[in-house]
From TrEMBL:
This is DUF4336 domain-containing protein. It comes from Pseudosulfitobacter pseudonitzschiae. InterPro entries: DUF4336 (IPR025638), RibonucZ/Hydroxyglut_hydro (IPR036866). It holds the Pfam family DUF4336.
Amino acid sequence: MAVIRLPDQGGLWVWSPVALTQDLRRAVDALGPVRHIIAPNSLHHTFLADWARCYPDAVVHAAPGLDEQIAGTSIHSTLGDLPDPAWAGTIDQVVVSGNRITTEVVFFHQPSATVLVTDLVQQIPRGWYRGWRAVVARLDLMTAPVPSVPRKFRMATKDKAASQDAVRRILEWPAESLVMAHGTPLRSGGKEALRHAFQWLMR
């Protein structure tokens, strides 16, 4: 999860929201009013309805492929390659299609030069999983020593050209930091990490 304060009193932009505990709600409310709630792919929607109920004035934006029945709440906007006017000029975005598992929208916060990626690139700390789950995570590259695209997403690529086109645009961003839903944020070297993670696709 990440929270961005939009300029010009645009409120808070909440990306891939996690469980809304009382402590988290207090922390978020202290930052300002929640105006936008983002479900960046069809897999990250578990807590979307809770946030929508808690912040009824917020606009819910979802990636292509996530419908209201699955999300359990109203979806006001389907994300595309063009940023919503509410955050245009502050946050850029690219829809990464061509994968059987999910379509993901990757974002770039321009003021901080930070890329936000949900499932397509992961680096879960070793030790997070135990037993057979740890073995599966290692084989899937979820716990690789560097940020990587899990093998399941590589194998699920159905339109390589479409995926390449999207990733090519992502790699054009002047990224410095990298925020992953499944991994420790990188404060520097974000562009190089993304280039390395997607080198299998861009060959």
